Amino acid sequence: MSPSRGALVAGAALTAAAAATIAVVVWPESSDSGLAGESGSRTPSRASAAPSPTRSYPLSTPPRTIPAVREHIAARGPGWRPGPAAGVVIAAGSGTLADEGQLLAKELKIHYRGDVPARAGDVELALTPGKGTPESYTLTTRDGRVTISGPDQAGVFYGTRTLKQSVRADGDMPEGEVRDRPDRPQRGLNLDIARKYYTVAWIEDRLREMADLKLNQLGLHFSDDQAFRIQSDTHPEVVSPQHLTKAEVRQILGLAGRLHIQVVPELDSPGHLGAVLRAHPDLQLRNVSGVRSTGSLDISDPGAAKLIDELLGEFTELFGGRYWHLGADEYRALMAKDPAASYPQLQRAAQQKYGPQAGIKDLATGWLNDRAAVVRPRGKQPKAWNDGFFRDGVVHADKDIEVEYWTGKEYGARLPEEYLREGRRVVNLNDEFLYYVLGQPNNFVYPTGKRIYEQWTPLVLRGTQPVPARYSGQILGGRFAVWGDLPLAQTPAQVAQGIRMPLRATAQKLWDPGKPALSWDQFRALAARIDGAG
Predict the structure, then answer these.
(1) Cα dihedral 370, 383, 293, 197 sign
(2) Structure pTM?
């Protein structure tokens, strides 16, 4: 794609009294380096044309957006730009798009007129049931108007993001038709609010940023060894002093819903529970020598399941979305050299429950399945980290639990293909590319947008090598993850700046995993132009 979106040709009007040479303003096609320029503005040149009674326009080029649109049908025409008479209207029978329309009108600084017929210069939003997937949309620019249509509110909303970004990048929307859709259904940001506290305002800023990038999931890891960050009525004793109230959570959820983002809460167990166990030390796992295992529940104690299930019951009611993350990673008992010898109570419980051939990994798998059985009746799709799934056991993780693949360094490490061969569905959080770990402990390095943009795709689940393309349909998408291991290493503002370009690169590759048309420098310059305008 050329960095200049194409030439707008304006002819001086001819009078009936005389035929004269028309001065035509042409926006020239420039070299690929044009996007990397400081201003990003277009400079007209003068050319001569034969007299003509009508205007002449070059063939349009695609709008410049992040992520890039997947298909644009070029046309000749002036395109559309916001003007004093422009407005946003809602097509008949599409009244549920009022929120999207009002937001777009505010962003473009044009009128919102609601459910009235479109007129010259307007943007019309329309629902077209049955035409495409829920997140797909069509954006048509013709005769000085824009029509954004789709089978569901989410798709139409994404069309409004395309229009907004195109206007920010170049001042207009080019003539023609955009037909767009995401490559993966799950696209998002994962945020560790347990180890580092973030304000409601900071989280809402990330939601707005995500929405413009057509990301649709915010993972919230709200409990860990360091803190438990959400108000609890069933167990107020586990809540850390600095936390989100339920009213604040509902505020976040309300904005997320309006922006078509699902929040994926994570209450990790049976590990990463230090904050909870400080209030319930009797449930903390101890080895044969009586040494406490950091953050780990003693899952042989019936009280452990009672505590976690009460919290799950409370918080699945608070969070009304489709997904629930059960954690299941890094259970310390399974990191011991000889788990059965180190934790004989767990070994006994496993054999009592699952037979003489069972081991501690079977007890841990049973724990995962039992927690999935708690959230499923509450309408939740369960998820768990890949190191909560084990091979060759007596007990196997339920097939419907989505695998959130993050590492190949776990106990009994399994290649991604093993999960895929079992028919499991996987979400990509590859720690080689997508892990932003504050303070960079344990050999983590802050990821760069350039590396994601040039080397990563959803098929690259572990390390740098993609899995075979035949498994593509089982890979549901991915999330860029921010972890607060050393929470004071960066301020919230530094985190926001540090993840800015990696998040944009992730959004691009989840929307369209193919080789991008723009170079990294061009992509970065476009991001600066879109973000700096408005």
Answers:
(1) negative
(2) 0.89
